[in-house]
């Protein structure tokens, strides 16, 4: 009798759990749908204001909550196209078409498809010459500082490659190395050879900044660069050389152009740097 009672109790608990799950799951789905509608509305509002970055973020959130909504994917693809993100726009447009679009929405999708094909071809033409490894170097022969001869120099290497099949985006690594060498000058300011370290000459040190580059096509043959994920390393003991270069470690914008076989970089402060392959 006790065994039958326990079985009946277990069945009752299981039944209650299944009933509760049947109630909660649709409620969760309804919450996701409501949130997706809010993000979709926010994306449309941003789109009306030509704020494509905010529009894209909101359409991405809506798509995450309603992954089978073809219209959200179509809107997201259209905004990504405006931002020049051809690869992701192409992916989301394909998802939208596969999910099922009809009438005017399907016509919009076909037009957007043609637009993305054109942009991919245009961007490939603009960006493909930047692919490869580029190098730059600088620094003088040295300068006389009291009894010391100080030599400062730097080298920079940038390697760029195509990120996706559309060719609309390049990714790369930038490695920027600097050195400061101070030695006792035994033969005067005109000496070509310096020997011996001396405490009065200060500290010898190096520092290196590495960052990731994302390159997109601009107009007039220009390419736009955002450097991010910066990391700085130094062997300087008395002062943290990296502390004075914090700006290089945050999101940093550049432009690139090609001229006479050289790649010319201009940073957001107007400074230029010339690279050779």
Question: What is the CATH superfamily classification of the largest domain?
Answer: Tetratricopeptide repeat domain
Give the CA-based shape.
elongated
N-end to C-end Cα span? 88 Å
Radius of gyration (CA) equals 29 Å
Summed over residues and divided by their number, the pLDDT gives a mean of: 81
Query: Can you tell me the CATH class of the largest domain?
Result: Mainly Alpha
Architecture per CATH nomenclature, i.e. the level-2 architecture of the largest domain: Alpha Horseshoe
The H/E string reads HHHHHEEEEEEEEE
Q: What's the number of structural domains?
A: 2
Number of strand elements: 9
**Relative helix content:** 40-55%
User: Please, what is the oligomeric state?
Assistant: single chain
Low-confidence stretches: 20-27, 188-195
CATH topology of the largest domain: Serine Threonine Protein Phosphatase 5, Tetratricopeptide repeat
Strand content: 25-35%
Provide the structure class.
alpha+beta
Major sheet details: 9 strands, antiparallel
Put simply, the count of helices is: 5
Folded structure, characterized:
This protein has two domains: 2-126, Tetratricopeptide repeat domain (Serine Threonine Protein Phosphatase 5, Tetratricopeptide repeat, Alpha Horseshoe); 131-140 and 155-178 and 200-275. It is 41% helix and 30% strand. The chain has helices at 2-48, 52-65, 70-82, 86-99, 103-127; strands spanning 132-138, 143-145, 148-162, 170-184, 205-217, 223-234, 252-259, 262-267, 272-275. Strands 1, 2, 3, 4, 5, 6, 7, 8 and 9 form a nine-stranded antiparallel beta sheet that branches. It is elongated and about 85 Å long. Residues 20-27 and 188-195 have low confidence and may be disordered.
């Amino acid at each position: 009798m006790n065994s039958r009672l326990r079985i009946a109790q277990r069945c009752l608990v299981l039944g209650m759990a299944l009933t509760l799950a049947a109630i909660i799951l649709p409620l969760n789905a309804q919450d996701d749908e409501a949130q997706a509608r809010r993000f979709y509305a926010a994306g449309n509002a941003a789109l009306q204001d030509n704020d494509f970055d905010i529009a894209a973020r909101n359409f991405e959130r809506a798509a995450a909550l309603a992954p089978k909504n073809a219209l959200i994917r179509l809107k997201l693809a259209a905004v990504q196209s405006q931002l020049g993100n051809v690869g992701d726009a192409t992916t989301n447009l394909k998802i939208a078409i596969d999910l099922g679009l009809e009438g005017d929405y399907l016509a919009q999708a076909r037009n957007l498809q043609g637009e993305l094909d054109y942009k991919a071809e245009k961007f490939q033409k603009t960006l493909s010459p930047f692919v490869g490894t580029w190098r730059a170097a600088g620094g003088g022969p040295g300068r006389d500082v009291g009894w010391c001869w100080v030599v400062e120099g730097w080298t920079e290497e940038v390697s760029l490659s195509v990120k996706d099949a559309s060719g609309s985006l390049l990714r790369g690594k930038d490695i920027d190395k600097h050195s400061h060498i101070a030695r006792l000058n035994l033969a005067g300011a005109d000496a070509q050879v310096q020997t011996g370290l001396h405490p009065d000459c200060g500290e010898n040190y190096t520092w290196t900044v590495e960052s990731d580059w994302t390159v997109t096509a601009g107009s007039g043959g220009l390419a736009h660069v955002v450097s991010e994920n910066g990391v700085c390393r130094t062997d300087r003991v008395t002062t943290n050389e990296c502390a004075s270069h914090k700006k290089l470690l945050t999101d940093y914008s550049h432009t690139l152009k090609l001229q006479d076989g050289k790649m010319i970089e201009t940073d957001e402060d107007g400074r230029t740097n010339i690279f050779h392959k």
